[in-house]
Specification:
about 120 residues; Jelly Rolls; 5-stranded antiparallel beta sheet; globular
């Protein structure tokens, strides 16, 4: 069935919107829409799955726990976050929406990795 990643997205919302686009053994694809949201102070994502993210619209800043610098993302930028790579979203576009495509995948051969 045909769908469009940019359909049914409001211009603003009080909370981040997560839509699962596909789920199958070993993979899940989500559209995430942020409206200025960021990770809570002191919170770090620590996932068992690997995550590849592509920023489609807006802007964002991501930090690895062990990283000394923030990674600023613009449309078209993408990151691979291996399982066990503690990370946080420091900010998303405060003046509009930020649209992400996130692919969560497992790879038993990879094990737990450090941040790239």
């Amino acid at each position: 069935m045909k769908a469009n990643l940019f359909e049914n997205i409001p211009e603003n919302a009080p909370e981040e919107l997560v839509t699962v686009l596909l789920s199958a053994e070993g993979v899940r694809i989500e559209r995430i829409v942020s409206f200025g949201q960021a990770s809570p102070e002191g919170f770090w994502y620590d996932q068992r799955e690997n995550e590849w993210v592509l920023l489609l619209e807006g802007s964002a800043t991501v930090r690895h726990e062990k990283g000394r610098t923030s990674i600023k993302l613009q449309p078209g930028d993408h990151l691979n976050l291996p399982s066990g790579c503690r990370h946080r979203v420091e900010q998303t576009d405060p003046n509009g929406r930020t649209v992400w495509l996130a692919v969560f995948y497992s790879d038993p051969k990879m094990g737990v990795n450090r941040c790239e």
